[in-house]
Amino acid sequence: MENIQSLSQMTSWLATGRILFLLIHLLGVGCFAYIVAKRLAPLIRGERDFRFDQPLVRLGRVLKFWLGQWKHPRYRTAGIIHIFIFAGFIVLAIRAFSVLIVGVSENFVMPGLSGRAGPIYDIITDYAATIVFLCMVIAVIRRLVFKPARYAVPARYGKAHTADAIFLLSLIAILMVADSLFAAAKAAAQSQPGQSVESLAAFSLPWILQKALLSTALSTLGKLYFSAYLVHELTFYFLLCYRPFGIQFHVETSLFNIYFAKLDREILKPVRWGVSDEHLDQVKSFGVKSFEDFTWKHMLDFYSCADCGRCSDNCPANAVGRPLSPRFITVKARDYSFQHYPVLGRANDGRPLVGSKDSGSIYSEDEIWSCTTCGACEAECPLLIEYIDKIVDLRRGMVDDGNVPQSLQKPLKALESRGNPYGKMEKKKADWANAKEFQQICPVKTLDKKNGADTLYFVDSITAYDDRMQSIARATAKILNHVGENFGILGPAERDSGHEVRRFGEETLFMALRDNNVEAIKASGVKRIVTADPHAYNALKHDYKDVPPVEHISQVIAREVKAGKIKFNPVENADSVYTYHDPCYLGRHNQIYDDPRDVLDAIPGLKRVEMKRSRDRSFCCGGGGLMLFYEPKEEQRMGVKRVQMAAEAGANVIVTACPFCMVNIEDAIKVAGLEGKMTAIDLAELVEKQIASESQTVA
Amino acid sequence: MARIFTYIMHKGGAVDDTAFELAAAARRIDPAASPTAILTGWGGNLDDACKALGASYPEIWKIAIEALAYPNAELIRGALVKVLPSNSIVLVAHEHFGIDLAPGLSIKLNSAFVSDVLDISGVEGAGLKVVRQEFGGQVSAHVRCDLSSGAVVTVRPGAFKPQEGAAITGAVVDKSADVGALAAGRRYVETVVAEAGDVDITKHNILVSIGRGIQEKENVSIAEELAEALGAAVSCSRPVVDAKWMEKSRQVGSSGKTVKPKVYLACGISGSFQHLAGIKGSPLLIAINKNPKAPIFQVADVGIVDDILEFLPELTNKVREMRSAA
Amino acid sequence: MEILVCVRRVPDTSENEIQVNSAGDDIERDDLVYSINEADNYAVEEALQIVARVGGNVTVATVGGNDDEEVLRREMAMGANHGVLITDDAFSGSDGRGIATILKAFVQKGNYDLILAGIQAEDGGAQVGGMLAALLDYPFASLVNSIEVLDGKKLKVGREIEGGNKEMSEIDLPCVLSIQTGINEPRYVGMKGIRQVASIPIPTFGASNLGLDPSAVGESGAKVKRLNYFVPALGKGAEILHGSREENIDKVLELVAAKGGLK
Question: pTM to 2 decimals?
Answer without folding.
Answer: 0.91
